[in-house]
Amino acid sequence: MTKTFKIAVFHGDGIGPEIMGPTVQILQQMADASDSYALTFADAPAGAAHYAKTGESLPAASMETARAADAILLSAMGLPDVRYDDGTEISPQIDLRKALTLFAGVRPVTLKHGQQTPLNMPEGREIDFVLIRESTEGLFHTQGRGEVSQNEARETLLITRDISEKLFRFAFDLAKNRKTAGRGPGKVTCVDKANVFRAFAFFREMFDTEARKHPDILADHAYVDATALWMVQKPWDFDVLVTENMFGDILSDLGAGLMGGLGLAPSADIGLDHAVFQPCHGSAPDIAGQGLANPFAMILSAAMMLDWLGIKHDSAAMRNDGTRLREAVEEVVARGNVLTRDLGGTADTEAAASAILSALFVT
């Protein structure tokens, strides 16, 4: 019996609509070719351009569309010249994370044979690890509400037991799923700064408590500064990393750099009931409307969505299609003959998306 899933679609700002369009088309073609699942798409207006027109960055109706959906696809958001009155950027994606308690920010880092990288990779090495960034508290807790006076400024870091325990359960479950799929040894690394901050000693203590519940999964610790070094020196040693919000924000961009740039960096923000899938890169208004945008990160985010829906709803077909879509992007990037300008090529958005379709449906 075919099951239909409703996807909320936030088209975003700048290049956002240009990369969302082909992504939705690819997903629709994959669903049309399946006899196990179907997809419907519901648009949800939001973002900086919407704020400039209406005074609302995330309308209540769009939030309800997101709540009612089985999954949420969100494209690049924000414009540098459109800000709230306090000077902060328009960021509905962060509002969604907090409203829907999307505590696990999932940032895969993969590098296959043939892909370009700034690293001097040893022969035969590949990179395949996942950084999990707590996405609702940490140093982002007081976003927009920090205290600023003439002589000092304060922001408050918050780590709670409730969110941290959920985060660590998610991390160990992910490591188990990756091990079962043959994508990792089954190891979780807690990335913190427990040698300096009591908050991170608290964070580590809760990690260790969860680790004892999973004797089949390796567990270790690493300070965030050492992790940044090892991500450059030996990134192939990592499997699942779990860390605080700000640390994860910084390390995820380093991970994108290992892959060749943000144009290949997908992400997900996942909670107990809802999940948002979006590229890590910005809205690039300087190239908007020119057909030059790289759609790969958006398409990879859609692949993550299929995989998550497949796990959540026990659909082997969706998980398989998620894998197929991810591998199609990896194949196109590794071949190197259809790359967008940010990756050193000359292909436009349409050609890049078409190359993915060809890799998916080659006969």
From TrEMBL:
GO process annotations (BP): L-leucine biosynthetic process
Cofactor requirement: Mg(2+); Mn(2+)
Domain Isopropylmalate dehydrogenase-like, residue spans: 6-356
Entry's EC annotation: 1.1.1.85
Family, as annotated: Belongs to the isocitrate and isopropylmalate dehydrogenases family. LeuB type 1 subfamily.
InterPro entries reported in the protein's UniProt record: ICDH/IPMDH, IsoCit/isopropylmalate_DH_CS, IsoPropMal-DH-like_dom
Pfam families xrefs: Iso_dh (PF00180)
Record's protein name: 3-isopropylmalate dehydrogenase
Quaternary data: Homodimer.
Recorded superkingdom: Bacteria
Keyword Kinase: no
Keywords: Amino-acid biosynthesis, Branched-chain amino acid biosynthesis, Leucine biosynthesis, Magnesium, Manganese, Metal-binding, NAD, Oxidoreductase
Listed GO MF terms: 3-isopropylmalate dehydrogenase activity; magnesium ion binding; NAD binding
